[in-house]
Amino acid sequence: MTPLREVRRQISSDPKNWAVYLMDFVDDFRYYKDRAAISEPFELSNDKIDALLASTVEYLCDEIGLEPPEWILRVPACKEPWFVSGMENLKATALVESPLHFRIRKIFVLENFLVRV
């Protein structure tokens, strides 16, 4: 399983494909439930991506009953709200549907954002 720190590095190297790296991590974390993958903090360099990763980790930990690592609490919210879909007509829906872990960091996603098939 790729540690979150490495996922953050991959996203920095290839920002256009951030969703691929994030969803690969989501799939692996749900499958392996490996606490070691989230044990080390990543370097903060992009408030949107940093907040998205931290929110995702908190959401996944809550989903499988793990205590999130302490360092996650030090990842700040985005400076400006980020509507991940980028579609203007979905903003109101994202405001309503975003899970708390995301809203706290001003990340707005649809309720099915982390649903995988």
Entry summary:
The protein is mainly alpha-helical and 117 residues long. Helices cover 46% and strands 3% of the residues.
Q: Helical stretch count?
A: 5
Portion in strands: under 5%
**Biggest pleated-sheet summary:** 2 strands, parallel
Oligomer: single chain
* Low-confidence runs: none
Molecular shape: globular
Helix content: 40-55%
Number of strands: 2
- Category by helix and strand content: mainly alpha
Strand order of the largest sheet: 1-2
Rg from Cα: 13 Å
What is the overall pLDDT average? 97
Give the end-to-end Cα distance, rounded to a whole number of Å: 19 Å
Order of helices and strands: HHHEHHE
Q: How would you characterize the overall build of this protein?
A:
By secondary structure, this protein is mostly helical. 46% of the residues lie in helices and 3% in strands. The chain is built from five helices and two strands, in the order αααβααβ. A two-stranded parallel ribbon has the order 1-2. Helix 1 packs antiparallel against helix 2 and helix 2 packs parallel to helix 3. The protein starts with a helix and ends in a 9-residue tail after the last strand.
